[in-house]
Description:
Mean pLDDT: 95
Number of strands: 3
Number of helices: 4
Oligomer: single chain
Helix content: 40-55%
Largest sheet: 3 strands, parallel
Amino acid sequence: MKIAIACDHAGFDGRKAATQTIEALGHEVQDLGPQEGESVDYPDFAHKVATAVESGSADFGVLICGTGQGMAMSANRHSGVRAAVLTDEMTTSMSREH
Length: 98
């Protein structure tokens, strides 16, 4: 499975950890940035991941930021993309069911 991943500056370290976990599970990661930990505009990176999912170049997307709300709202502007803020196993499971 190909998974696109991106973050804002608050999620920079988390993206590195998530990438390692995803790769350890045998999936391919498409890292869409940012490459540095400086302040960035989160919608730019949410749209990159959502575009990858929308176009089919990625099967799923992972967005990491401070709260997740802004990233999810930005990604949900894309046709066929349904982003949710996930904080635990239950919310993750329920988001997939709904």
